[in-house]
């Protein structure tokens, strides 16, 4: 029976470790998602909306050059934002996978506890 108790203890320690991973991933998700929203709201959307043609000094060649630079910058930002969205989705998948591992460990603990109870009878 002591080997069952030892195994239960080890499984509970694994659950604590996995829960710590979840906390770290959730903290990383919150941090990255905050930065993502900041870039989306304060840089990307404003940059897309900015009209280079309104200023007289931008007419002609400078206007075309400025517009190309803006278009390139928007493209780079959009690409980075898409990659960030995928990374955030990957974090959520990792969290769910760890939660599934925890559920499996909890089921094993319940089984071992039931086994212990049957041995005590």
Automatic annotation (TrEMBL):
Sorted UniProt keywords: Coiled coil
Keyword presence, Coiled coil: yes
Coiled-coil regions, chain positions: 88-115
Keyword set includes Coiled coil: yes
Protein name: Uncharacterized protein
Organism: Butyrivibrio hungatei DSM 14810
């Amino acid at each position: 029976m002591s080997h069952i108790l030892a195994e239960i203890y080890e499984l509970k320690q694994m659950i604590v470790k996995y829960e710590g991973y979840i906390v770290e991933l959730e903290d990383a998700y919150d941090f990255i998602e905050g930065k993502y929203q900041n870039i989306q709201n304060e840089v990307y959307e404003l940059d897309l909306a900015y009209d280079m043609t309104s200023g007289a000094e931008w007419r002609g060649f400078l206007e075309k050059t400025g517009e190309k630079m803006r278009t390139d910058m928007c493209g780079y930002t959009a690409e980075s934002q898409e990659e960030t969205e995928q990374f955030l989705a990957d974090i959520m998948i990792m969290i769910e996978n760890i939660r599934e591992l925890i559920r499996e460990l909890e089921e094993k603990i319940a089984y071992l506890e039931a086994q212990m109870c049957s041995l005590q009878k």
